[in-house]
């Protein structure tokens, strides 16, 4: 009897408390900027693709769900001819973003990626590449890492050492 009264008391005690549930999707939950959700490929401030098709993200992915093929433009700048992510296998671990030297691939705070058919979860480059810079505005890998000039040597710079000349 005592436990029944205690249970009824608990019901009334909680009945007027603030509710933690939200009326999704009318009310969107707050997602922190570093939340690991939808994967995108970003561009630099000049609108060029940041991805240099180095394959590091594909190598770092623990479930092998990234595939791409590299090509290059008339100036020798590399970019992916195609880029594919199988989101049905992706575990949203963020290793690809950690491995990327150019901030091209990013996990963004968006979780609304549900599909009824698994084949619709294979994202091609046109599904991934956005028009903007994403989470890292102002970053340009080519500015940070240097640009190859001519044969790779800057004016006045010594040519690279041939390691074979150092052999005993
Ligand atoms: S978030 Fe993890 S599992 Fe998903 S593509 Fe990137 S490395 Fe692979
Ligand atoms: S997204 Fe980043 S890590 Fe992946 S191939 Fe492009 S530049 Fe390399």
Task: Please outline the helices and strands.
Blueprint (H helix, E strand, L loop, with lengths): L1 H14 L23 E3 L14 H5 L5 E7 L5 E9 L8 H5 L5 E3 L14 E2 L1 H4 L12 H5 L23
Antiparallel strand pairs: 1-4, 2-3, 3-5
The structure holds iron/sulfur cluster (SF4) (2 copies).
Quick overview:
The protein is 20% helix and 14% strand. It has 168 residues and is α+β, with helices and mostly antiparallel strands. A 3-stranded antiparallel sheet has the order 2-3-5.
Biggest sheet: strands side by side, in what order?
2-3-5
Kindly estimate the percentage of residues that lie in beta strands according to DSSP: 5-15%
Q: What is the 3D form?
A: elongated
Structural class: alpha+beta
Q: What is the H/E order?
A: HEHEEHEEHH
Strand elements, count: 5
Helix proportion: 10-25%
Helical segment count? 5
Named at the architecture level, the CATH assignment of the domain at 27-141 is 2-Layer Sandwich
How would you portray this structure in words?
It contains five helices and five strands. Strand 2 (66-72) and strand 3 (78-86) form a beta hairpin. It has a domain at 27-141: Alpha-Beta Plaits (2-Layer Sandwich), CATH 3.30.70. The strands form two sheets. It has a three-stranded antiparallel sheet. The protein is 20% helix and 14% strand. It has helices at residues 2-15, 56-60, 95-99, 125-128, 141-145, and strands at 39-41, 66-72, 78-86, 105-107, 122-123. Bound molecules: iron/sulfur cluster (2 copies). One iron/sulfur cluster binds at residues 60-61, 63, 65-66, 85, 90-96.
